[in-house]
Amino acid sequence: QVQLVESGGGLVQAGGSLRLSCAASGSIVSINDMGWYRQAPGKQRDLVATITSGGGTNYADSVKGRFTISRDNAKNTVFLQMNSLKPEDTAVYYCDADLQYRSGSYQLRSHMWGQGTQVTVSS
Questions:
Q1: Contact by Cβ (8 Å): 84, 13
Q2: Residue 1 — very low, low, confident or very high, per pLDDT cuts 50/70/90?
Q3: In Å, what is the CA distance from 25 to each residue of 22, 75, 99, 100, 103?
Q4: How far apart are CA 63 and CA 88, in angstroms?
Q5: Calpha distance 92→14 (Å, rounded)
Q6: How many CB atoms lie within 10 A of CB 87?
Q7: 80-103, pLDDT tens digit by residue?
Q8: Half-sphere exposure of 110 toward its Cβ, with a 13 Å CA cutoff?
Q9: How far is CA 48 from CA 12, 45, 102, 108, in A?
Q10: What is the DSSP string of 52-77?
Q11: CA–CA gap between residue 98 and residue 84 (Å, rounded)
Q12: Residues 25-59 pLDDT 10s
């Protein structure tokens, strides 16, 4: 069974930093794009940042210059370094991955989500 597990969320004061991690585990063959999304209460889930297998990145305008996405392909892990945090960054953060995995004698492709990790920024 393949799963994504996030860690690193928590409570931080405005201006502080947090680093989120998301590790994919299971019978993984390869991972294409990985990313981070966030969902605040009563709002839709929005893109934060994405990264390709080659390291190409894309960011939401609201986090450019403050957040950095990176990945360790050998460990199937994606990171989100969040600096200069603002109260409006408060949300549940989800990682996602477009990956190929083995299931019995088959190789399948799936878009998977982690369970989410809470980030709260106090003013």
A1: no
A2: confident
A3: 10, 9, 11, 12, 13
A4: 11
A5: 17
A6: 11
A7: 999 999 999 999 999 999 999 999
A8: 18
A9: 18, 9, 29, 27
A10: -TT--EEE-GGGTTTEEEEEEGGGTE
A11: 29
A12: 999 999 999 999 999 999 999 999 999 999 999 99
Q: How many CB atoms lie within 10 A of CB 84?
A: 13
**Lookup result for tokens 């994606």:** 78
Q: Which two tokens stand for residue 74?
A: 């050998």
The residue written with tokens 């004698």 in the block is 105
- In 3D space, the residue among 84, 82, 75 whose CA is nearest the CA of residue 4 turns out to be 75
**DSSP, res 89:** G
